[in-house]
Design a protein that fits this description.
alpha/beta
Length: 213
Amino acid sequence: MPEFAELLKGYRRFREDTYPRQKARFDETVAEGQHPKLMIIGCSDSRVDPAQIFDVDPGEIFVVRNVAALVPPFEQKPGLHGVSAAVEFAVQMLEVKQILVMGHGRCGGCKAALTGSYLAKEPGEGGFIANWIDLLSAAREPVARKHGTAGRKAELAMEFAAIRQSLANLRTFPWVADKEAAGEVKLRGAHFSIQEGVLYSLDEETGEFLPED
């Protein structure tokens, strides 16, 4: 397959250049284990790799990615809770100091939540996507009332709302809420504009997303 062949070209560049340059760092993480201080919850979108955006070394960030960078609320029902497991591991075992929810511009998952384009679809035709982004159903309503469901202004508002919703859902996890109250964990929200190459950080006091220098 030509796609995998292209990946192997990148792997060979990694082996020839990046790995030798970073070998001491890799050896350190093997000997001492990983001790990242920051968790990033990001989108699976191929254009927004957190390691690339933040230009970090191996072992510096613990990352979980999914459609629209969503965090479900805390629950103990039987099921496969992948994001919850990652949050639990990061906060309780790795003892990260910060959790960053990073959405991005032109997010297909947020747009689908806004427009309802996958509603009533069967699994394999959008059904799994619809079930997942239903996490944004409550956040969608005020956006749709104010901006409608089409156009870039509405999409951006939905992207911002999704970040705020995931932060709110993070705070439903008892150990996250307890550690935030104790000052042991800081929660942050951010939005990466692909078109501009600019990161906007959420000021939770004002609710505004402000550009970083």
